[in-house]
Amino acid sequence: MIKRRGWLAACLLLLGVFVWIAPCAAYASLDKGTIQQLIDEAKPGDTVTIAPGEYRGAITIDKSVTLVGEPGTVIVNDAAQPAVTITADGVSVSGITVEQRSMEESTAIELVASNTMLSNLDIHTHAFGIRLRKSNRNEIADNSIQWLGEMSGQEVKMSAKRNGIDLYDSHDNVISGNRISSMNDGIYQESSHRNQVIGNRIDHSRYGIHCMYTEGTIVRGNAGNYNVTGAMVMGVTDAIVEDNSFTKQSENVNSQGLLLFDVHTSTIANNRVEGNRIGFYVEQSSKNDIRNNSIERNFVGIQFLESEGNELQANDFIANVINAEATDSPDNRLTANFWDNFSGIDADGNGRSDISYAINPFFQQLTHQTPAFQLFFQSPGMQFLETMMQSDRSSWTVDIEPLMMPAGQQAMAGKHNSYTFWVSLCLLLISTIIIYNTGVKRT
Amino acid sequence: MGFRNPWAYSFMALFIVFSIILLLINARNAVEGYSGVTSAMLNLILYLVPLMSLLLGSFSLTAEKEEGSWRLLSAYPLGTLSFIVGKYAGLTLVLWVIMFVGYGVSGMLGAVFGGGFAISDFVLFIAFSMGLSFLFVAIAMMIGTFARNRWQALTISVSIWFFAVIGWSSLLVAILGMVPYLYVKPALIFLTFLNPAELVRLFVIVKLGGGSILGPEYYDWVHWIGRADGTLWFILICTLWAAVAAGIAYIIWERGRHRE
């Protein structure tokens, strides 16, 4: 046994040595510091092209050069400092794979500069992906960022991970078309204003997009799935969140599609939240315009807590276990939404019901006092109890004129399921045989 | 056996109608996993199946007493245990056949005309109904043992059905309101194990992928049931439940037999 293990170890060692030697042998001239030398020799405005190969970090770009990696260019960094640090304005970096291997609190790419263009980078990191500090008007496009070692099946706690793209005190940046996977927060913005987050895809992270104390943020056309929460927007005014899709955020007990906390005068429109634990979670938020969203197949469609003066219009609530819950949330105006569990009456034929739809807050109040009662979620007994608790109806959140038909297009799934057919046939056969043998035959 | 009893056929007709209603609800919005539609269907099943099991089960036993066939049987060398176990197995089978017919008809219609169930949900619903009837027949055996005649059995059955299915959360919210906060959750879990309707309902919700809606309080439970061996444990608990209920019925019948 011991002999065999020793043999295996020797093999592994040999393999390791080979893997380590191979790139060094192939690109002997391109050893440590070569990229740094090329940058040092270049004049501002030059384009530096890097030949394929594995390079050792860390490098610093302190003049406005364009750095282009040919396919197969890899920068590996084991040191605690960032693999690439950019300190000059007007730099452009593209086509490079960056591996930040150090577990220290650092980042693959550090940006302390403005008007930078980062594109087509493939970042694998044990720390942050791209970090922006006091950096304005940069463009970060079409990069891929993921946690290093996730492929080999190593389980890392979410809290031990760092953010994909992390902005602090950085304004007017455009972050578009990036793909971020298995990080802490996908795109994190703090005290950063007027940034545009457009068309990114984020999965298996904690929060897909996280905004803290930002103004004028635009979040448009992003897709998030299997995150704890698709987008967490907090302490924000005048944001625009539209055309995003947040799906399948349901595995965690704190999962939401879109979480709005302390958000004011913002527009939330044309988003699709599907299959989440809670579609929209709105807390302590006011005067927001929430319209034309499609809220489907969530456990709870929309939940209001201590939120007032929000406008909720032309949203489709379809096949949620509970469409809406609201507590301590007066003066929200709900008009012309579609609620699939409500049958309205439309006498004047304007497509809107003449009777209103009221949301019973009983269950939410009950579980707020005693969370253990959450066990009764949608149990027949609880529905029975809810129908009896009809007092104080005037304080309920009400949709004054709900829509008769969904506002958006609805793809109805008419499934022809052949497995179900065969299973049904078997069931019928079995029961016929039993009934014949025990009932009919003996009489 | 049970299929010479006209009750079985009227329940079968009822269940076919009922399962077609389920199909129509499902066709409105075909969805896989835990959703508003599946939740409504679970609740409909939860209303009908326990009631059916309790009535059919308890009537079958009281009929033996009323019609005197048990006295006749007592004269034969037939053990009370075989009698109880035979009754239990037979009644469960009758109920399962009723459900097979119902689900079979609606499953076929759905598969042919579209808007049918997804196979995973369909199988889960069948399993859910089978589990429910298995457990409620166990309760029916106890009712049939205690009740002297059909009228008593009917009264007890309906009241047990009402408290287990409809009044359950009202009852618990009222009672646990008086219990110190710290004991609410343990008491709730303990009581849930006593009510087969709740036990099976929660198991199915977790299996449909809706576990996280129960909140952080039940994180460990949900994780545990969600695993593959969670199903085995669940079956074990159900079997234990049935064995205890049937055991109690057996002891009381045995006593009655010796008194006569």
UniProtKB/TrEMBL annotation, chain A:
Alphabetical list of SUPFAM superfamilies matching this protein: Pectin lyase-like
Keyword Transmembrane helix: yes
Keyword Transmembrane helix: yes
Annotated InterPro entries: Carb-bd_sugar_hydrolysis-dom (IPR006633), NosD_dom (IPR007742), Para_beta_helix_rpt-2 (IPR022441), PbH1 (IPR006626), Pectin_lyas_fold (IPR012334), Pectin_lyase_fold/virulence (IPR011050)
Record's keyword terms, sorted: Membrane, Transmembrane, Transmembrane helix
Transmembrane segments: 419-439
SMART domains: CASH, PbH1
Every Carbohydrate-binding/sugar hydrolysis domain range: 42-203
Protein name: Nitrous oxidase accessory protein
Organism annotation: Paenibacillus cellulosilyticus
Source species taxonomy: Bacteria, Bacillati, Bacillota, Bacilli, Bacillales
From TrEMBL, chain B:
A single MF term (Gene Ontology): ABC-type transporter activity
One Pfam entry name: ABC2_membrane_2
Key words of the record: Membrane, Transmembrane, Transmembrane helix
GO cellular component: plasma membrane
Transmembrane feature ranges: 6-25, 37-56, 93-116, 122-146, 158-183, 232-253
Name of the featured protein: Cu-processing system permease protein
